[in-house]
Amino acid sequence: MNIVILTSKNKIVFDILNQFSKNNIHIKGIVIEEQPPANNIDFLKAFVRRNTPIFITNIIRKVRGYDTVMITEFSKNYYAFSDDVHIVENFNSSKSEEVLKTLNPDLIILAGSRIISSNIIDIPTIGILNAHPGILPKYRGVNVMLWSIYNNDPIGVTIHFIDKGIDTGPICKQKEIPISKGDTISILRDKGNYVSGQLMAEVVKSYIEKRETTLIENKEEAGKQLYKMDRKAHLATIKKLENW
User: Fold this and answer.
1) C-alpha span between 143 and 111 (Å, rounded)
2) Do 17 and 5 contact (CB within 8 A), yes or no?
3) Are 109 and 132 in contact (CB under 8 A)?
4) Omega cis (within 30) before 37
5) b/e burial code for range 11-23 (CB count within 10 A of at least 16 → b)
6) Stretch 2-10: mean pLDDT, rounded?
7) In 3D, which of 169, 85, 156 has the Cα closest to residue 129?
8) 15: pLDDT confidence band, cut at 50, 70 and 90?
9) Which tens digit of pLDDT belongs to each residue from 91-110?
């Protein structure tokens, strides 16, 4: 089975790749979306960001009030997981389409990406799997983990096939993520990424072994599409976590 990963270099990609490696799931190719710097200032910022040691980056983040995070995307090598790595400026571009048709995927895995257009959706013979950081069908769209906490609902991960809607494709597997005292948004996102890797590997392994997986209907009317959380709601969500 030809499996191709699409990633915008989000942290989740290595959680998925590591789980695939542990489960002996072969990756045919990796396609990375990376837009070139728009100007010299952006180029300089990107250069400094990529060449600053992780411990210095974490100190700066701590001073600015962010949680420290281990940035793995520059310390790990995509070629450790596949010999066929490509860079495109946009997953929906004609170049991306050409690359994917050459890779001839049965299954495409999204590991952090933009909304995928029809010309890409139609390429794989089986479909495109996405790890959604929320419980479908109730929570579709963006910031769904934050909205779940804000509404006192469970947080979790859903592995689903994508279609031409927003998080409306059939569901393969779901798992809730417990919230512990002291958890921050950053910690919960890391937990979500790890669970995403586990569930994605389980779903893909099932396809490899059985050529099928159990699908659950994703009833669009059972939820609604959510958008970026405003500052007031975001601060209220952080306060809820602090008082957990």
Assistant:
1) 16
2) yes
3) no
4) no
5) bbbbbbbbbbeee
6) 94
7) 169
8) very high
9) 999 999 999 999 999 999 99
Query: What is the distance between the alpha carbons of residues 230 and 4, in angstroms, rounded to a whole number?
Result: 35
Helices and strands, counts by H and E, the chain: 8, 9
Place of tokens 């490509």: 86
Which of 111, 132, 93, 126 minimizes the C-alpha distance to 29? 111
| Neighbour tally for 184: CB within 10 Å | 13
Distance of CA 22 to the CA centre of its chain: 19
What was the pLDDT predicted at 212?
Answer: 79
Query: ∠67-50-74 over CA atoms, to 5°?
Result: 80
Percent of the chain's residues with pLDDT above 90? 73
Prediction pTM value? 0.84
Strands (E), the chain: 3-7, 29-33, 85-88, 107-110, 127-132, 139-141, 155-161, 171-177, 224-226
Strands 171-177 and 155-161: antiparallel
Dihedral of CA 166/171/172/178: which sign?
positive
Judge whether residue 43 has pLDDT over 80. no
Mean pLDDT across the stretch 132-144?
96
